Amino acid sequence: MKTLLVTGGAGFIGANFVLQAVADGLRIVNLDKLTYAGNLDTLAPLQGQEGHVFVQGDIGDRALVAKLLAEHRPEAIVNFAAESHVDRSIDGPAAFVETNVVGTLGLLECARDYWRGLAEENRGGFRFLHVSTDEVYGSLGAEGKFTETTPYAPNSPYSASKAASDHLVRAFHHTYGLPTLTTNCSNNYGPYQFPEKLIPLVIQKALAGEPLPVYGDGKNIRDWLFVGDHCSAIRRVLDAGKVGETYNVGGNAERENITVVKTICALLDEHRPLADGRPRESLITYVKDRPGHDRRYAIDSSKLQRELGWRPSQTFESGIAQTVQWFLANQPWVQRVLDGSYRMERLGT
Question: What is the DSSP code string of 57-77?
């Protein structure tokens, strides 16, 4: 049974990856600090399964990481661990530098030392896959898409910290020969997403009949990627990606934020109408824009499609319908997340 060390595997994308990987027969050693966005409830289906070992800890704890590597002898490390919310990075950038930069550096150093100590026949198959974001590229104009060669131009403390971690991963490959892979993805959505992000936030507020805050004029554009498709892309890159390369992962689903919000409103009106019969679009409230709010992101994932044969399986319409249905069916999970540490307030003002 192939073993992976997955960091951040109790977060949104990481947990979806872990659930998928264990179901497919992989053994996962899951290291997560369990900050506000980490949630063991998401991993409850794996309780008692031999294919999943959960360890609470920090990727910056080098002694712990070295111990896990020595004990479990993974064939790969997949690094999801990150502070990831732009608004929170505006309020408190230091935590983002600590986890995303300093923590990634510690993980890389442990991975390098472990890899160097592997037997020759195992060293060639080892991989360090770093999961990053399209936000490192900055903001696009009305035309064009981000490619793997687009210059970095991060505009928020979050994206700057992820850009720094990407550069460290690249440096460890070119300096030490560590067999690294990097993926830069567009905006994820889907089951188990922490309810401060746009889509689950809108779902929860719309269910409650509360005002739906939309930044600026609502015309900021993102490329939306269903989380299950992102996880399958990571698996494909891990299995067949060329060492040292970067692969962009996108959903081919550019939408204005206001379109996303109105789509959610329509789905909820269909499946869970408000008691007073109001259309939920009437709840939309435009609020002052976020500082440094990038206007448009769009990912060109043609390299991944051309070289590794990956394609997204979900359209935005099918993915958002699944997502709304999941949140409607899993309100107890949502309510346990909203335990007081997060109240769906706006941050980063």
Answer: --TT-HHHHHHHHHHH--SEE
Output the six-digit token pair for 19: 């659930």
CA distance 18 to 306: 26
**How far is the C-alpha of 115 from the C-alpha of 104, rounded, in Å?**
16
| Residues with catalytic roles | 134-135, 158
pTM above 0.85, yes or no: yes
* 148 neighbors 202 (Cβ within 8 angstroms): no
Beta partners for 215? Answer: 287
For residue 283, give both structure tokens. Answer: 């709840």
State whether residue 53 is helix, strand or coil. Answer: strand
Question: Domains of the chain: which residue ranges?
Answer: 3-193+224-253+294-314
DSSP for 238-265?
HHHPPTT-EEEE--S-EEEHHHHHHHHH
pLDDT in tens, 333-345: 998 888 755 555 5
The topology under which CATH files domain 3-193+224-253+294-314 is: Rossmann fold (3.40.50)
